[in-house]
Design a protein that fits this description.
The structure is a homodimer of 301-residue chains. Chain A is an alpha/beta fold and 301 residues long. Chain A has 2 domains: 2-154 and 200-300, Metallo-beta-lactamase, Chain A, CATH 3.60.15.10; 157-197, no CATH class. Chain A is built from 11 helices and 18 strands.
Chain lengths: 301, 301
């Protein structure tokens, strides 16, 4: 899993602070998560191949999370895209995008498929043999979802030398990788555990932005490899977090701690603070492994 | 009149090539013309005071001319704007902007006034005692207007010394500036021309983008101080200009020559060409005073 932050600032875009967008590279997929104004420029800046994006997940319909979507969809058309593009987002997203394409008489020449969301419980949005994507219902001023990206456990790794030493017939290898026991050339059962090793632990990534402090998400995100949690404010401005239904760095850390995640990534910083280090300091008082999102930063999970 | 180019490239935004937007500073007004994605970032980059913008003119509803509008409107809200904002643009612009504000539950807390256009003849959009703005109907794939910005002639300048020498009574000075004759203390009529000089010639600016070669605009833009005319293509790609209803540099120059304008500014370049100098070269074969728009360039007219 490789996470690239395209933008991680709240509210108004500035030349050095892009609104929310990130790409997650996992098992051959390049998932785009949120798409604030200027996202397509950030994709170019960081040399991310547009054509690899086939699924875009929009958390909610505030401008700093989706005003760049229609432009990206239009650019795909100008680049001659042919393959399907799937958009997952709150109900209403289809109307607003198609209205703009209609007004410009600029329909896409590729299939544009909307998956509108209005459920308040987790929903499976995408699944193949290697990865799944599920909504994480959040609590904000408008209907909002986070997204949970989960790798599936791969096949068991065969210890070929040991299998050969135990005279396990090669024709069983495929099923052994899937967890079955082997059979030796003299007919004896060879337990799976003796000739295989565990595959790498599946990675998982939870994206939670925007939301107020909402501990109800903890059971769903427990033990994830990385949690991106919004931290719009510092604790000294807790009243603003309450008012605007955002979270503080301390609250994000509390979620991370209670969900026993491996790593917390903070983002969605308010522009009122001169730097980001205060966010990390505040979170470190509660949780030990805190990273700061920055535009252009890459996290190898 | 001071024209600042915020973006002058066609189609997809790139980090070094912004889609169309420009600001015209004239007689105390700061008019924003078109608003492609990223315009608000360009406004910040070039340190243009957001609050001074009270009128935004949108030529047509292709993304590279208006996808930045909703973000700018939202940013005005976040900045606590109180004063009216007037949006002039094709029918449909109100629906698409208000739908986005509705979906995000982000209504403006300042008056947002739409003036929707569907006329195919020139329309006066704005007028005060110093300046007027009129549509220039253009011909493109969708309904499109250019805009003509015209200063009004100021008062005549009084030659005070000569007026005093001719014993013109001061109480007449105000009316003399407005063109009336004076009267000397001995009752003689003093012709206006003897005691005044012409005020500076009023400036005018015609913005014409996007459009195919459309000589019908010539009577309306004759003698303007500066004409910005789209030149998406070079003449060698004339077939593409025909197909997409855009113009070539040569065609833009032909319009400039026949309209006897003082200066031609080319822009809206296709990304297919490595540089801009070829556009100037081609236009110079037809018309002598050709400038190239560039992001961030300022023209003092």
């Amino acid at each position: 899993m490789k996470l690239t932050i395209l933008g991680c600032h709240s509210a108004t875009p500035r030349w050095d602070a892009n609104p929310t967008s990130q790409v997650l590279d996992v098992k051959g997929h390049l998932f785009l998560i949120d798409c604030g104004e200027g996202t397509q420029i950030q994709l170019r800046r960081f040399k991310i191949k547009f054509a690899r994006i086939k699924h875009i997940f929009i958390s909610h319909l505030h401008g700093d999370h989706f005003f760049g979507l229609v432009g990206l969809i239009s650019t795909f058309r100008l680049l001659g895209r042919k393959s399907e593009l799937h958009i997952y987002g709150p109900k209403g997203i289809k109307e607003v995008i198609t209205l703009q394409l209609k007004l410009g008489d600029s329909w896409t020449n590729y299939p544009l498929l909307f998956h509108e969301l209005d459920s308040k419980v987790p929903q499976l949005l995408f699944e193949d043999e290697k990865v799944s994507v599920t909504t994480i219902p959040l609590k904000h001023r408008v209907y909002t979802n986070g997204f949970l990206f989960q790798e599936k456990a791969g096949e068991r790794e065969l210890n070929v030398e040991k299998a050969k030493a135990l005279k396990v017939e090669m024709s069983y290898f495929r099923k052994i990788k899937q967890g079955e026991d082997g059979v030796s050339s003299d007919g004896a059962i060879v337990p799976n555990a003796e000739i295989t090793i565990d595959p790498p632990t599946p990675k998982s990534y939870a994206y939670c932005s925007d939301t107020e402090y909402f501990p109800q998400i903890i059971p769903q995100i427990t033990n994830v490899t990385a949690l991106y949690h919004e931290a719009t404010f510092l604790e000294k401005d807790h009243h603003l977090a309450i008012k605007t239904k955002h979270a503080t760095a301390k609250e994000a850390a509390s979620i991370a701690k209670n969900a026993k995640v491996d790593m917390l990534i903070l983002g969605h910083y308010s522009g009122r603070y001169p730097g980001k280090e205060e966010f990390r300091k505040e979170a470190l008082q509660i949780f030990e492994n805190v990273e700061l999102a920055e535009d252009g930063k890459v996290f190898e999970l």
